């Protein structure tokens, strides 16, 4: 599949015209039997997590939509990492199902509009990149009645079992519009897991494997609001607008490993790139602080989030289980001198 190009903005697209854009030069996504699932993610540089995600969802996702830009949320420059990685063996077997969207840098006019949506500075750029990326994706693959569209960050990974049940439960859609699944940051109601898979939110049984019950009728509440608010489709789909609250949350349907990086350099990269610009402060972004917090299982920014050490990996994506040596840093950070960071020699840590 090809790379997307910029399209002309239109803040008031008639519902009958969404998402049909006849002049696009991108290939159409072929129809398939039964509902299709489109997994759309916004990529910074988390290629390893993209690999984990694609392998987890390999058998249930019909099209992987990778959205990328040369601009970070904090207005910095970044290479188009997936443009290069797409030519490598790691992603070769997925490429016939990948739609790669490159979002152009934000213009002054677009920033002014998105300031009203996402807030100041980095949040406005995040709103723009999500909205523009999802718009370009929808204009390309043109979802059909019964299809599902997910949007989340790369490290917010739905369980394949949950999506398989979604497909099974939505084989006969009741609504003529396209049902879009809102992932709410792709976090389960048990809460996120940060830094490693040995930590679980306090009060949670990490070994729980309760079945996921899906009711299709409760998971189709976002159809019309999304089409009616086309300019904000990206942030609405991801769940930033709480007026979309409804009975469409699925318990224990995903993992969220927010700072689960193999190299400490990726920690610095994320802090300098994502919308929480306050997290790039020197008090947080130094090796001593980062390693101590990772080793002790503490929140990196000392927020009121409490985690328990489980002593063994908890319920992790199968690709991690199948490659224990490669992903040892995800399951063995606790009290390890270098917190498992591959680019920090153990003998260099003296605290």
Structure description:
- The chain has 351 residues and is α/β, with parallel strands linked by helices.
- It has 2 domains: 223 residues; 85 residues, no CATH class.
- It contains 12 helices and 8 strands.
- β1, α1 and β2 form a beta-alpha-beta unit.
- α4 packs across α5.
- The longest helix is centred in the middle third of the chain and has 20 residues.
- The N and C termini lie far apart (50 Å).
- The N terminus is likely disordered.
Low-confidence stretches: 1-29, 172-196, 198-227, 240-248
Shape: globular
Radius of gyration: 20 Å
- Number of distinct helices: 12
Share of residues in helices: 25-40%
Please supply descriptive tags for the structure shown above.
12 helices; 8 strands; 351 residues; disordered N terminus; single chain; four-stranded parallel sheet; two-stranded antiparallel ribbon
């Amino acid at each position: 599949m090809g790379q997307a190009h910029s399209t002309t903005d239109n803040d008031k697209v008639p519902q009958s015209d969404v998402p049909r854009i006849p002049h696009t030069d991108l290939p159409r996504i072929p129809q398939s039997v039964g509902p299709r699932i489109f997994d759309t993610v916004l990529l910074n540089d988390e290629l390893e997590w993209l690999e984990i995600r694609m392998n987890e969802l390999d058998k249930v996702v019909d099209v992987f939509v990778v959205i990328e830009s040369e601009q970070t949320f904090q207005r910095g420059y970044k290479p188009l990492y997936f443009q290069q990685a797409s030519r490598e063996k790691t992603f070769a077997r997925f490429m016939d199902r990948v739609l790669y969207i490159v979002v152009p840098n934000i213009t002054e006019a677009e920033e002014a509009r998105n300031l009203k949506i996402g807030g100041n500075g980095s949040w406005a750029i995040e709103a723009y990149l999500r909205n523009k990326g999802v718009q370009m994706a929808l204009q390309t693959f043109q979802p059909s009645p019964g299809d599902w569209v997910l949007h989340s960050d790369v490290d917010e990974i739905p369980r394949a079992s949950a999506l398989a049940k979604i497909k099974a439960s939505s084989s006969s859609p009741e609504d003529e519009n396209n049902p879009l699944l809102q992932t709410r940051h792709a976090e389960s109601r048990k809460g996120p897991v940060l830094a490693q898979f040995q930590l679980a939110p306090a009060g949670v049984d990490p070994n729980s494997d309760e079945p996921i019950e899906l009711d299709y009728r409760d998971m189709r509440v976002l159809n019309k609001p999304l089409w009616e608010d086309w300019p904000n489709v990206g942030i609405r789909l991801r769940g930033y607008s709480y007026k979309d609250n409804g009975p469409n949350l699925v318990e224990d349907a995903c993992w969220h490993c927010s700072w689960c990086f193999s190299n400490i350099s990726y920690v610095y990269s994320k802090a300098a790139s994502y919308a929480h610009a306050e997290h790039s402060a020197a008090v947080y972004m130094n090796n001593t602080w980062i390693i101590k917090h990772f080793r002790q299982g503490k929140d990196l920014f000392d927020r009121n989030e409490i985690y328990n050490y489980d002593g063994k990996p908890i319920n992790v994506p199968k690709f991690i289980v199948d490659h224990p040596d490669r992903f040892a840093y995800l399951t063995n950070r606790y009290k390890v001198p270098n917190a498992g960071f591959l680019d920090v020699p153990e003998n260099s840590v003296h605290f």
